[in-house]
Amino acid sequence: MIESGGSVLERHNVTVIGSAAETLVLVPGFGTGQSAWRHVVEAFKDRYRIVLFDLTGVGPGSQTHYDHVRYGTLDAYVRDLTAVLDALRIVDCICVGHSVAGTIAALASIRAPYAFRKLVLLGASACYRNRGDYRGGFDGADIDGLIESATRDYLQWTASFGEMVVSGPADAPAVREFVATLRAMRPDRALSLLITILQSDVRHRLAEIRVPAVVLQTSHDPAVSREAADYLHHHLQGSVMEVLDASGHLPHLSAPAVVIDALRCHLS
């Protein structure tokens, strides 16, 4: 179901489920589309009006309007998110963002604080790189290696990256799904977006965020270090943090029951 708002909603493949008074917005992270939230949707569709969409170039179904220059920073994604919320006239929503989408949602709350009542940041990071005393998880050599291997053989890279990020064997359903969605993306756009994400650093913006936030982090996340999650928690005023009894960067796919239980505790 697509509500009014014309091209903005069509461009981002917006789906609205239910008609409850309270709105839950679910934003997918790198290499996943809105279908990655299906377990969460099933658990909460009777309680919330749920809004799902794909950020440009992030999900495999929303790449037509991707522009390498415009989307060279996270600012364009922030504008996209606020445009969708404004098109649907959403205020006081709970927004759950996975990975970089959590960062995007946090920045969007600065731009449009009226739209958000609470942020839930699942596997999010303010900065993925190690910089000085800050431990984001990736050195420059790590990032160079990721990009070089992806450029050399994209299909092989998706397989190894999928296993690493999901923290599972190649035949695990969550790994297979993540690899398939990565392969549905155009390699040049996937790599451009990956570089944008890994080079982003929004630590200086965290003090501007006033919307209450929940940081959800798995006990072992190969994409976001525990130090990075702790930094996010400590620099978001009044935030709470829960370490999930799960591993990997996509627990809503690999351990959905754990994520659903955590959301039940924190959404109210």
TrEMBL record:
UniProt KW keywords: Hydrolase
Domain of life: Bacteria
Limits of the AB hydrolase-1 domain: 23-255
Keyword set includes Hydrolase: yes
MF-aspect GO terms: hydrolase activity
Pfam short name (any one): Abhydrolase_1
Family, as annotated: Belongs to the AB hydrolase superfamily.
UniProt xrefs under PANTHER family: ESTERASE-RELATED
Protein's recorded name: AB hydrolase-1 domain-containing protein
